[in-house]
Amino acid sequence: MMTPTIAVDALAALAQETRLAVFRMLVQAGPAGLAAGEIGAQLGIPANTLSFHLKTLAQAGLLAARQEGRFIYYAANYPTMDDLIAFLTQNCCNGGQCLPKTEQVATTARRRAGSLA
Amino acid sequence: MMTPTIAVDALAALAQETRLAVFRMLVQAGPAGLAAGEIGAQLGIPANTLSFHLKTLAQAGLLAARQEGRFIYYAANYPTMDDLIAFLTQNCCNGGQCLPKTEQVATTARRRAGSLA
DNA sequence: TAGTCATTTCAATAATTCTGGAAACGACGA
DNA sequence: TCGTCGTTTCCAGAATTATTGAAATGACTA
C-alpha cells in the first residue's frame, strides 16, 4: 500500500537527472530489463556512480534486480509506478470534473483512488 | 513541453513530505484552490516554512497562485501533473503490452506519449 | 494615516545528497 | 586455481536542502 513516506522515497529517487534517465530507459525497455553495464554504457555513467543510483531506485521499490550469470538485470517495477500515480491523483478535484486535459489521466489509478467521474 | 530538467524539478518539489501533503490537498481541493493560511492551519505548518514550500511547488510549475484581497490562493496545476505522468510513462514497454495492472494507466498521458496499445 | 492581518524574505544552522577514486566482491572461463 | 570481468562498497569532499526566528512587505479597515 502506498503511504506518504513511500511516495516521498519514490519521488526523491526519481528527482535526479541520472536516475530519472535510468528509470525512463527501463520503463521503455520492458519487463526483461537491462544489465547494469548496458545502462551505464548507454548513458555514460561510471560504474560506481550508476551502482549508487540503481540502489537508490531499487530501495524505493521502483526497480527490481535479478542476477543472470555475471550480469545483473534491472527492470522497472510497473505496479509501483502505477501506485505512485494513483497516490498523486487520488480523489482529484474531490471526485468532481478535472480540467479537460487531465480528465482521463490514469484511468486505472483513479479507479483505485475512487474518484472516477 | 516537458524536459528531463523540468521533470526533475517537479519531482524534487514533490519529494518532500510537507510539500507532497500540500500538493495532494490542493489536487483534491480542485481549481478554486485554498488560501495559504488555510493550508498551513490544516497541516500545522509555520507560515514561513509553508511559504518556502509553496514557492518551491509554484516554481516547479505544480501550483498556480492568485491574489484575492489579502489572501493568496494556491491551486494545483493539473496540466503540469498530467505532463509529468506522461513523461514518466512515455513509450512504456516500448509500445508493447505492460503488466496487466499498469496496462490502463494514464490513458491521456500514454496517448500523448504515442505508446497506447 | 495608523493599525492589523496574511504572507513573504532574510539569515544562519543542521542535515542530506551527489560524485568518483580505490578497493573488494562474486561469477565465470582457461 | 588464477585471472578477468561486471558490479558493488567504502570513503571523503562539495553541494544542496529544510527549518525557523526575526524582520519586511502589501492589502485592507478604522
In short:
Chain A is built from 7 helices and 3 strands.
Secondary structure tally, helices of chain A: 7
Multimer state: homodimer
Which secondary-structure class do the elements of chain A indicate? mainly alpha
Mean pLDDT of chain A: 87
Q: Which spans of chain A of ≥5 residues are poorly predicted at pLDDT below 50?
A: 100-117
Order of strands in the sheet with most strands of chain A: 1-3-2
Q: Main sheet of chain A?
A: 3 strands, antiparallel
- Report the sheet-strand fraction of chain A: 5-15%
The interface involving the most residues is between:
A-B, 44 and 44 residues
- Outline type of chain A: elongated
What share of residues of chain A is helical? 55-70%
Distance between the termini of chain A: 23 Å
Tell me how many strands of chain A there are: 3
Rg of Cα set of chain A:
16 Å
Strand-and-helix sequence of chain A, N→C? HHEHHEEHHH
